[in-house]
Amino acid sequence: MLEHIKSVGVVGSGLMGLGIAQVVATAGFPVTLCDISEEAVNRGYQQISKQLAKDVAKGKKEQATVDQILGNIVTTCDYGKLADVDMVFEAVFEKMEVKKDLYTKLDAICKPACIFATNTSGLSITEIASVTKRCDKVVGTHFFNPVPVMKLLELVRGYDTSDETFQIALEMGAKIGKETISVKEAPLFCVNRILVPMINEAMFVFAEGIASAEDIDTGMMLGANHPIGPLALADLVGLDTLLLVMQTLYQETCDSKYRPCPLLVQLVRAGHFGRKTGQGIYKYD
Ligand code: 3HC
């Protein structure tokens, strides 16, 4: 099935889109990285290039390999350049209206056989697909941050996702070096349904003054063997993204146990999104 995929588009040059572009280009696919502003895609390309240069410095990759990976990526803000790609990975802002607007546009631009793979933390694949005329070719591909490091790819079927599309997603996952898990559509799917309420609970523990941020994180690292604590992880993922994801769970289930921690809401209102803005629960240089 994967032999039908010769070229790939990645839409969105944020944290996730860049990581996806990097791993797909590393697997040898020509990648068209697309975003609304030229400045954003150019900055994104530089970030990928910097990340790969670190691998060369550490002796993990040859310079020639890095040149090849970078040579596989072209950047553009002209969505028309996606007309001929065989598969699009989309990683735009985690808001249903934003995704629907984009897919309406992509559906008109991309060839009918093109597969749409949406990287969402928990939005309905079925609803995203509903604005296209190819609901059978839309699949959820949920990557984890940092994409080049995290082994997992969570694959989610929408109501109309075909077996063929799902098979292509499975094969693509293997080709880009990820372990896949297959999950039914449900708010936040599988991993985030467990992980995000845990992070939200850590925010409550912090906001209630039960322990310092450092002690909460040390507690979960040493007591539960997590690689980093939940509050440091919140800053890594982005508090803005976490809030949107938590709100999806709360709104979709109408269950008060999933209400976002007020401190999370307040930090996002203050523009403190975590590492990417230099301040979240912690401060960064
Ligand atoms: N891109 C590429 N590589 C990166 C990277 C990045 N952004 N950040 C770190 N790395 C690499 C480093 O180069 C290093 O590689 P090396 O071992 O070959 O030298 C390795 O990862 C370890 O990095 P560091 O030594 O700098 O730091 P840490 O040991 O603290 O590891 C971490 C960093 C891998 C991010 C680790 O802290 C970790 O595993 N954290 C948990 C991440 C996690 O849980 N992610 C899931 C978030 S939830 C999500 O994404 C879902 C969404 O929908 C909300």
Tell me the number of strands: 8
Largest sheet: 8 strands, mixed
Please tell me how large the radius of gyration is: 19 Å
Order of helices and strands: EHEHHEEHEHEEHEHHHHH
**Uncertain parts:** none
Task: Report the sheet-strand fraction.
Answer: 5-15%
What is the straight-line distance between the termini?
46 Å
Overall body shape: globular
Summed up, the helix count is 11
Percent helix among the residues? 40-55%
> How do the strands line up in the largest sheet?
3-2-1-4-5-6-7-8
Overall structural class, as computed from helix and strand content, comes to alpha/beta
Provide structural commentary.
With 285 residues, the protein is an alpha/beta fold. Helix content is 47%, strand content 13%. The chain has eleven helices and eight strands. It has an eight-stranded mixed sheet. Helix 7 packs across helix 10 (239-253) and helix 10 (239-253) crosses helix 11. It starts with 7 loop residues before the first strand and ends in a 16-residue tail after the last helix. The mean pLDDT is 97. The site of 3-hydroxybutanoyl-coenzyme A has 19 residues, from helix 2, helix 7, helix 9 and helix 10.
Fill in the keyword field for this structure:
globular; binds 3-hydroxybutanoyl-coenzyme A; alpha/beta; 8 strands
Topology, element by element:
Layout: E1 8-11, H1 15-26, E2 31-34, H2 38-57, H3 63-71, E3 73-76, E4 87-90, H4 96-109, E5 115-118, H5 125-129, E6 138-143, E7 152-157, H6 163-175, E8 179-183, H7 191-207, H8 213-224, H9 230-237, H10 239-253, H11 262-269
The structure holds 3-hydroxybutanoyl-coenzyme A (3HC).
The site of 3-hydroxybutanoyl-coenzyme A has 19 residues, from helix 2, helix 7, helix 9 and helix 10.
